């Protein structure tokens, strides 16, 4: 039984890089920052390879790179398995044929959330399209 299957357990969250960008900004919305901080404190947040790459490459200095790397290392690591890749490809195949293409990076992130049973928190319209056409559970923090 995964933590998400336990009755009354709060959902595990995969926080997309679009969320981390605002979370770390001094001008970020307090509601978003509070929600992320609470989920991290409750040990409910995961990350994966693509998000790690996107967040770390956006660091402005070596010091902020190291701080971000430390923060992300404290989160649950979600592997990109063959099942994740196949699910992402299948969702992308369906969306392309429906005239709704989205970046492969977003397909990989969404498929990781789905396969691992995590809700995806984000600030990216591509995930809205994916959620409308898949089993993705998500929360978009809109301004």
Quick tags:
single chain, 143 residues, 5-stranded parallel β-sheet, Rossmann fold, alpha/beta, disordered N terminus, 5 strands, 10% strand, 7 helices
Could you explain how this protein is built, in words?
The protein is of the alpha/beta class and 143 residues long. It has one domain (8-140): Rossmann fold (3-Layer(aba) Sandwich), CATH 3.40.50. Helices cover 54% and strands 10% of the residues. The protein has seven helices and five strands. It has helices at 17-23, 30-41, 49-57, 62-73, 82-97, 104-116, 125-132; strands at residues 13-15, 45-47, 76-77, 119-122, 138-140. The protein has a five-stranded parallel beta sheet. Strand 4, helix 7 (125-132) and strand 5 form a beta-alpha-beta unit. Residues 1-6 have low confidence and may be disordered.
Count of helical stretches? 7
Along the chain, the helix and strand elements come as EHHEHHEHHEHE
Low-confidence stretches: 1-6
The tally of beta strands, per DSSP, is: 5
Quickly name the level 1 CATH class: Alpha Beta
Tell me the helix content: 40-55%
Number of domains: 1
CATH topology: Rossmann fold
CATH architecture: 3-Layer(aba) Sandwich
Strand content: 5-15%
Ordered list of secondary-structure elements with their pairings:
Elements lengths: L12 E3 L1 H7 L6 H12 L3 E3 L1 H9 L4 H12 L2 E2 L4 H16 L6 H13 L2 E4 L2 H8 L5 E3 L3
Parallel strand pairs: 1-2, 1-4, 2-3, 4-5
Helix pairs in contact: 3-4, 5-6
In short:
The protein has 143 residues and is α/β, with parallel strands linked by helices. It is built from seven helices and five strands. The protein has helices at residues 17-23, 30-41, 49-57, 62-73, 82-97, 104-116, 125-132, and strands at residues 13-15, 45-47, 76-77, 119-122, 138-140.
